[in-house]
Amino acid sequence: MTEQLTQDDIRQMSESDWQERLSPQAYYVLRQKGTERAFTGIYTDLEDKGVYHCQGCHAKLFSSEHKFHSGCGWPSFDRSISSNALDETLDLSHGMRRIEINCHHCGGHLGHVFPDGPQDTTGLRYCINSAALSFEKAE
């Protein structure tokens, strides 16, 4: 697993640095707030145990323990790995009212959170782009 970027590293990175660091798809999602097509992401159906990291800075974001199959076409989680892993902002784009989810560490766009998750846990569905993630399998 690649080492997590420091805040100094992140502050010094230009957009061309991000483009060099990330694949075109990851750059589009993380830095340009794009979305991959539904059911195309490599982690949508992954059932391995482990930790999902931010593709941009490698901060820990989600545990496989909190992943579930929502049928929406993107990896879904009912909570983040810690209370300070994510930032939420109001997103009024595309004529919708949604809550955007960003990596707290580097600010990369991850996806959105919706209040239609499992009612027996948090009731939340963090709908996350696979392109924004990397996965570290548990040993």
How does this structure look, described?
This protein is of the alpha+beta class and 139 residues long. Helices cover 16% and strands 29% of the residues. It is built from 3 helices and 9 strands, in the order αααβββββββββ. It has helices at residues 7-12, 15-21, 24-32, and strands at residues 50-54, 60-63, 67-68, 76-77, 86-91, 98-103, 109-114, 125-128, 133-137. The strands form 2 sheets. The protein has a 6-stranded antiparallel β-sheet. The chain has a 3-stranded antiparallel β-sheet with strand order 2-1-9, with no helix packed on it. A hairpin with a 7-residue loop joins strand 3 (67-68) and strand 4 (76-77). It is globular, with a radius of gyration of 14 Å. The two termini are 13 Å apart. The relative contact order is 0.24.
Structure in a nutshell:
The protein has 3 helices and 9 strands, in the order αααβββββββββ.
Please outline the helices and strands.
Layout: H1 7-12, H2 15-21, H3 24-32, E1 50-54, E2 60-63, E3 67-68, E4 76-77, E5 86-91, E6 98-103, E7 109-114, E8 125-128, E9 133-137
Antiparallel strand pairs: 1-2, 1-9, 3-4, 4-8, 5-6, 6-7, 7-8
Structural Rg: 14 Å
By DSSP (H or I, 4+ residues per run), the number of helices equals 3
Helix % is 10-25%
- How would a crystallographer describe the biggest sheet? 6 strands, antiparallel
Name the shape in a single word. globular
Number of strands: 9
